[in-house]
Amino acid sequence: MVANRGYNSTSAKTRQRLIEAASEILDEEGYPAFTARRIASRAELKPQLVHYYFRSMEELVVTVFKRSSASYFQLHDEALSSPRPLHALWRLNCHIPEARRMLEYVALGKIYPALREEMRASGESFRALQIEAIENICRQRGIDNPPMPAAALAAMMSAVARSIVIESNVAMTMAHEELNTFVEKTLDQYDPS
Amino acid sequence: MVANRGYNSTSAKTRQRLIEAASEILDEEGYPAFTARRIASRAELKPQLVHYYFRSMEELVVTVFKRSSASYFQLHDEALSSPRPLHALWRLNCHIPEARRMLEYVALGKIYPALREEMRASGESFRALQIEAIENICRQRGIDNPPMPAAALAAMMSAVARSIVIESNVAMTMAHEELNTFVEKTLDQYDPS
DNA sequence: GCTGTCACTTGACAGGTGTACAGTCGCGCA
DNA sequence: TGCGCGACTGTACACCTGTCAAGTGACAGC
């Protein structure tokens, strides 16, 4: 008889290994390699275990995304609590592995609706935190006429970092340096050294 | 005997139909639907014709990309020749179907190296044209201290537009309006109405 | 009328995909 | 000692993927 099919034992060691392997696959080989068999093989487990611990690939990808998101939250929080929060945030945004992983999720989001919803939710909450942080900085340092609204700055930082990663993926580098310099100069107006 | 396999008859009507169908599939259903069978079925042709006219899916996707690229070049050129070139370019960048299609190519680029190379080449040439256009505007209007270097402005416009499209794909809209307003205000400094 | 060429069709291959279900093993508890 | 249950395995399904080889039919040129 088939029993519980371990969907609930969220802490089982094997389950964790699968999540870990899935995450590594995504980082190292990208979304096309995100398949039950590849992931299981990376974890040195039988492919059927994927569907023993997860109802579907969609449930797996959402689980993996949530884990990424949680660990990113830590880094994000540290950045915003550092002495120059915006520069730290910018460095985090540009951190290639994280940014690249997000691109893979974008591709997988085309296939799995539940992942899109998860991305929306987490994306909006990160953005809200950033906007709040920027507004706090302005208030604390008495910046009354910032170069741009807090929301625009937060969104621009993500946009620029993401774009640099996308273009690097196709070996495009033209104008990246200038763009990076411009962003850093802008941040200097909030976050002087 | 197998003959030429139509690889060279680049103008054949059937071949054009395949290219057209592939392009529509990409726009309407995204990269996961970019398969020989779906494309042929959309063109109401037998799937094997795809490999009669194209050596491989990679050759097809590169061909389709080049066509997109060429038609985009026209729009791009018109924008840069208009009375307010940067606003026109910005509107073009934000044009959702074009921007969304580019995202699909990014996903396909993970699979097809030749597509990546094509994207790099065309991406760099568009960027070079934009930088040149911005520098011309500065020269003509006597803008000696622009808010940012021409290269940074060109790259930022792409980055922001692309990012808005990515986020819209997952139904994220927070801060988009503010970002759009900021970009337009920046462009006003180059391109007054 | 024969031949060759071009456009296309028929049929198939090997490999990959997500997913399901019944069976087995081992360990804790009665 | 036996039972139950959770963890895992074996086997299989239906479907989809890119790609290929051979054959068919029409038409042009000799």
UniProtKB/TrEMBL annotation, chains A, B:
Residues 35-54 bind DNA. Keywords: DNA-binding, Transcription, Transcription regulation. Residues 12-72 form the HTH tetR-type domain. SUPFAM superfamilies: Homeodomain-like (SSF46689). The keyword Disulfide bond does not apply. The keyword DNA-binding applies. It holds the Pfam family TetR_N. It comes from the Bacteria. PANTHER family: HTH-TYPE TRANSCRIPTIONAL REGULATOR BETI, HTH-TYPE TRANSCRIPTIONAL REGULATOR RUTR. This is TetR family transcriptional regulator. It comes from Novosphingobium indicum.
